[in-house]
Amino acid sequence: MKLIKEIKKYLRPVKKLFSTEYKKTYSQAGEDIIVSGALKAMKIDNVRYLDIGAHHPSYLSNTYLFYKNGGSGVCIEPDPYLFKNIQKKRPKDICLNIGIGVNTESEADFYIMSARTLNTFSKSEAEKVSRETKYKIESKIKVPLKPVNEIIGEYFETTPNFISLDVEGLDMEILKSFDFNKYRPEVFCVETITFTDDNSGEKEQDIIDFMILKGYFVFADTHINTIFVDKDKWIKK
Questions:
Q1: Cβ atoms 143, 110 nearer than 8 A
Q2: 142 φ, ψ to 5°?
Q3: How far, in whole angstroms, is CA 158 from its chain's centroid?
């Protein structure tokens, strides 16, 4: 009986997400609505976010819904062309034309792909996509880097409520560099599907296992992205 009560406690806010009420999503697979439901369940309305790999002001954005509803945060976009558009369309946000550093390097090669959603700092990822799909490497540029913990310390008064992470092949490295003892965002949305030559996608279980080890649980999974919630904060809500 106790187990059933605990399960119902976890599922109650999820059930509300799938009501018949129409909801507008800007994310690829409704991730923003799911994250919004989780944050509301934890009584967080004025959302502060960190969008790593922002790509576009609204299209396929996991943070635009919160921006539209009065939230604000920091958008990280290494592609200079995409960065200018985000900076123009989201003036309330702090927009940084940089990448996330995971070691002592101050800059790194960034690969611009013919499909800009596939842009990446990972040489192996860029070459794999170029080799196995119709999308090719268009150019390689140098981009300045800054550690994620420094960004949070410099631009946030407190820990952001929500972090969206989509960096095409380097998500795990960034998560490993994150100071979970100092910063505990309520929610993470992380891309956990990697490219495969048959386009089916391969789940990156190591990311899921790592986040569980850090005290987060899988709140939802859209096949493309996994949404993690801080277990302690969820229990205390």
A1: yes
A2: -90, 135
A3: 18
Say if residues 228 and 204 touch (Cβ distance below 8 Å).
Answer: no
User: β-strands 99-101, 137-147: how paired?
Assistant: parallel
Burial of 139: CB neighbours in 10 Å, binned 0-12, 13-18, 19+: exposed
10-residue averages of pLDDT along the chain (237 residues)? 56 55 86 97 96 96 98 97 97 98 93 91 89 92 97 98 92 97 98 74 93 98 97 91
> Is there a contact between 121 and 107 (Cβ–Cβ < 8 Å)?
no
Q: Exposed, middle or buried by CB within 10 Å (0-12, 13-18, 19+), for 130?
A: middle
Q: What are phi and psi of 163, to 5 degrees?
A: -120, 125
Q: What is the C-alpha to C-alpha distance for residues 65 and 33, in angstroms, rounded to an integer? A: 8
pTM of the shown model:
0.87
Owner of token pair 């945060």? 73
Q: Find the Cα–Cα–Cα–Cα dihedral 174, 180, 183, 189, rounded to 10°.
A: 50
Q: Are 61 and 51 in contact (CB under 8 A)?
A: yes
Tell me the residue type at 4: I
Closest CA to 168 of 126, 223, 227, 201: 126
Angle subtended by helix axes 31-41 and 2-17, to nearest 10: 130
- Domains of the chain, by residue range, sit at 2-100+156-235
Give me the CATH code for the 2-100+156-235 domain, please: 3.40.50.150
